[in-house]
Amino acid sequence: MLTYTLRYAYYPGCVAQGACRELHQSTVALSKALDIELVELKKASCCGSGTFKEDSQLLEDTVNARNIALAEELNLPLLTHCSTCQGVIGHVDERLKECQETDPAYVEQVNGFLCKEGCSPYRGSTEVKHLLYALIKDYGLEEIKKRVTHKLTGLKCAAFYGCYLLRAQKSMPYDDPFQPEGMENVFRVLQATPIYYKGRTQCCGWPLASYATEQSFKMAGMHIQEAIDAGADCMVTPCPLCHLNLDSRQPEVEKVIGQKLGLPVLHLPQLIALAVGVSPKELGLQRHIVSTKPVLAKLGLTA
C-alpha cells in the first residue's frame, strides 16, 4: 500500500462535465480508491480543442498559459483525462517553455495579457500529464496491481488512443507515438486481455463531425468493426471526444455504414475502477448509449 498521497491540479475539461459526465464521475471515484488527491481547477477555462489557433496562436497560448498558471499557483502538476486537452495544453506548455529560451518577448506578451486580467503569470514550472501516464509513471503499475480486488480475467479490451494523446506534442516521453503500449500494459495488470487492431492509434473522426458527418461516422465505424473483428468485448478510450463519436453516436454510425455494431466503449478510469472494486453505478456505466451490461455480465457484475 502507498504510504503517501499523490496530488494533482485536476483539469476536468468541458466534455467530462457535460456530455460525458461519467468520465468526471469515474475519475474522481478512481482517485479516491487509489488515494490520489485531486485539487480541481474550478477557475480553468476550455482549452479550445485546437480551434483557437485557427484564429490566433496567441489566443490559444494565452488561454492555456492561464490554465497552466492555475496549477503552478498550487505547485502541482496539471492532470488531464482528455486526450484533446492533453494535446492542446501540453503542446502550449511545451511551446512556451521553448520560447522562454528562444523568444522570451513572446512569453512576456502572453503574461502581459494575463496580468491585465489579474491572473498569475506563466512560469513554466510544472508539467501537464494525462491520467493514463500519471497512473503508469507516478503511481506505478505494480501499485495498481496491489489494489486490484476484482480481476478482469477473460475481458478482451481494445484500446482506442486516438491521435491527440500520442502526437499533438513534439515530445512523447512516456510511450511510442505510433506503437504505444501504455493502455495495453494497464489492461494486463488488471488481468484483462489486450486486443490489437489497425485503427487504435488513428483519429476517431470527431474533428470532421461538424462539416463532414458521413466521413466522420465511416471512420468511427471502421475502427469499431476492426475491434469487433479482432475479438474485442469492448473499446477503452482515454478521450471523451473519442467516446462521443464511438459510443454516443454509434447508433448513427450504424445507419451510415449499414450494419449493426453494438460494441461497448468504456472510459479508461471506468475500467480501472471496476478492477479496484468501485461499483458500476458509481462509475456512471448506465449513462452509456451502447449498453455496458455485456461487459459487466462477463465480469460477474451488475449495473
UniProtKB/TrEMBL annotation:
Record's keyword annotation contains Signal: no
MF terms in GO: oxidoreductase activity
Any Pfam family the entry gives: CCG
Residue ranges constituting the Cysteine-rich domain according to the UniProt record: 8-89, 158-247
Keywords per UniProt: Oxidoreductase
Protein's recorded name: Heterodisulfide reductase
